[in-house]
Amino acid sequence: MKALGRLRWPLAALAFWCAAAGAQQKVVFGLVSPLTVVNGQILVAKHLGYLAEEGIEVETVTFNGSAVLLPQIVAKRVTVGFPNPDPLIISRQPGKDPLPLKFFYNVIRENVWEFAVLAGSPVKALAELKGRKIGVGALTFGNIPLTRAMFKELGLEVGRDVDLVPTGLGAPAFLALKEGRVDALNLFETMHTQLETQGTPLRRLKMPQKYLDLFSNGFIAHEDTIRANPKLLAAFGRAFAKATLACNVNRPGCVKAAWKEDPSLKPPGANEAKLLADAVTLLNARYDKYLAFPKAELPRWGEYPAGAWKYMAQVMVDGGQIQTAGFDIDSLYTNALVPAMNNFDPAAVLADARRLP
Predict the structure, then answer these.
(1) CA distances from 25 to 21, 28, 59, 130 (A)
(2) Looking at the domain covering 25-110+215-353, what would its CATH class be?
(3) Helix H segments across the chain?
(4) Whole-angstrom Cα distance, residue 104 to residue 232?
(5) Residue ranges of the chain that CATH labels 3.40.190.10
(6) Distance, CA of 194 to CA of 179 (rounded, Å)
(7) Is residue 43 over pLDDT 90?
(8) Most buried pick, 16, 64, 156, 257, via CB within 10 A?
(9) What is the DSSP string of 215-227?
(10) CA nearest to 341, candidates 24, 112, 107, 109
(11) DSSP code per residue over 151-194
(12) Sheet strand arrangement including 80-82
């Protein structure tokens, strides 16, 4: 009996240890547009085992724009969101209820939004869109305040001089442009590139440089989550950073890994080489914006440069979208998790990139 008793304890301990080791923390990850190979680093992180190493299980949910996503994070139904910064800035204005949210990872370090017209369009400049219709994903999309600001600086008012028409993304938006129901599209760059890969030549309208210099989507969480569970958010950011680095050196492998983890992302068609080439073209259209770090400096994944948020707020003031930039800018974001999110060996990640399909 004593011998049996001695056996029981190690087996029970082993069972407990296995259960603890297998326990994973769930992260509900909210997107403002559908998951694609372009923003699919989280799938690559899963494929390479980075999420498992961090003890994370990710559930991805898509919402129709930043204005729809943010209340879900406030209600703590979403752990991490991937919105534009504009709505959070607006929430800090006088008379508004400030959202208890903060950005903690600067993902897309340059502006992704564009204005595109058909190659044969008579419209050559933004000002020439006066009296015309512009297709947007939805009026709840986070880029709408900056779109309004750009036109205001040109002396044009949205709703009076130009109309924003919700077209959705992908095929419905493309059809609206090709059929002439809108004169231009104001979508993110990979949407326009996708239309070009399908055989429709486009021309981008030049935007003021100060808008091109703005950062775009990043990771945001509830202030309570940042205070109570910073290790979880840092682990999520670290896995994403490692996947972003791996994808940079093996973009075809990144696409294939995303397709393997989510087969619905692979477009139908028998020509595998063409499908892969088109997907890599889309990835290339975005990737420099993930990597827009200061020159001659090592990447600091997730970090917001000094003054970036103040500059964003001032651009919105100049464009008439907010009243003042004189509020607590630091309440919008934190770089506190950056050291932990960069705590990995880049050389090991580059070796992992060779394991992609």
Answers:
(1) 11, 10, 11, 51
(2) alpha beta
(3) 2-22, 41-47, 50-54, 66-74, 86-90, 144-153, 171-178, 189-197, 209-212, 223-228, 230-249, 251-261, 272-290, 308-318, 338-341, 346-353
(4) 12
(5) 25-110+215-353, 116-212
(6) 17
(7) yes
(8) 257
(9) ---EEEEEHHHHH
(10) 107
(11) HHHTT--BTTTBEEEE--SSHHHHHHHHTTSSSEEE-BHHHHHH
(12) 56-62, 25-31, 80-82, 218-222, 101-106
Identify the residue whose tokens are 């896995």. 239
Measured CA to CA, the distance from residue 326 to residue 30 in angstroms comes to 30
Cβ(282)–Cβ(193) under 8 Å? Answer: yes
Over residues 4-42, the pLDDT tens digits come to 333 333 444 334 444 344 578 999 999 998 899 998 999
Report yes or no: 136 and 191 within 8 Å, Cβ to Cβ: no
Residue 240 confidence (pLDDT): 97
Q: Could you please report the per-residue DSSP string of 63-105?
A: -SSHHHHHHHHHTTS-SEEE--SHHHHHTTSTTS---SEEEEE
Q: Are 142 and 188 in contact (CB under 8 A)?
A: no
Cα dist. 239→47, 112, 148, 335 in Å?
11, 23, 36, 17
- Averaged pLDDT, 259-285: 91
Residue 205 has a pLDDT of 97
Residue closest to 304 by CA, chosen among 103, 97, 147: 103
Residues 155 and 164: their CA atoms lie apart, in Å, by 16
CATH superfamily of the domain spanning 116-212: Periplasmic binding protein-like II (3.40.190.10)
Report the pLDDT value the prediction gives residue 153, as an integer from 0 to 100: 87
Between 339 and 6, where is the model more confident?
339
Give the pLDDT confidence score for residue 303 in this predicted structure. Answer: 96
CB 138 within 8 A of CB 166: yes
